[in-house]
Design goal:
three-stranded antiparallel beta sheet, alpha+beta
């Protein structure tokens, strides 16, 4: 074969095909870098997030954006009516979140199943904080998966007979080993429950 002859049996790649191959390689590289960056960011956030610790409840957690720990209505020597932690938006009296350990002080602790416990908790909290007659609607039970604790949530709305804005109740029960904790977010149509944020809060619970 002469030096300037081309072997017709050797496969060749057109310029167009080469560009597509190069583009695919670039996209794969960018995708890999994004995945690595997201993983690094997640690890950084887990190590540096603004967690709130409650030694009394035996947990730490990440509050929803814009919510802060504060004192709720207290009685019996300065103890919260329910739970060990109360959260509320600064400057707003509408909507609040209660968090605590699931112990024998709550009827829901008698339910071994987390979904049933969450619904029992939500029912009791709704009756206590929203005692006016009404009809419950939009009930939903979902799974809560956290890196340190997991369980279930239960949500429903109450349409009041007196025409007041509909109430919203979100309750979650999560556990790690034999220990369990709960979250209850109460709001209404004027200050609705952010169910995605509530699920993130419940999933962020970490035993101390």
């Amino acid at each position: 074969m002469e030096p300037d002859e081309v072997d017709s049996t050797t496969p060749t790649v057109s310029r167009r095909a080469a560009r597509w191959i190069l583009t695919g390689c670039v996209i794969s590289l960018v995708g890999s870098l994004c995945a690595i960056g997201y993983l690094a960011y997640s690890q950084y956030r887990m190590a540096h997030d603004d967690r709130i610790e409650s030694a009394e409840a035996g947990i730490s957690f990440v509050p929803p954006t814009g919510w802060e720990q504060r004192s709720q209505a207290k009685e019996d020597g300065g103890r919260l009516i329910y739970g060990q932690v109360a959260l509320q938006r600064p400057g707003s009296e509408k909507g609040f979140i209660l968090i605590g350990k699931l112990d024998q002080s709550l009827f829901a602790s008698g339910e071994a199943d987390n979904a049933q416990a969450a619904c029992s908790l939500g029912s009791g909290m709704g009756e206590f904080f929203f005692p006016a007659p009404g009809q419950r609607t939009d009930r939903a039970v979902e799974e809560v998966k956290g890196s340190d604790a997991s369980g279930n949530s239960c949500f429903y709305r109450v349409k009041f007979e007196n025409g007041s804005p509909s109430a919203e109740v979100y309750a979650a029960v999560v556990g790690s080993g034999e220990r369990r904790w709960w979250v209850c977010w109460l709001g209404d149509a004027t200050a609705p429950v952010d169910r995605a944020a509530a699920a993130e809060l419940a999933a962020s619970i970490r035993p101390l």
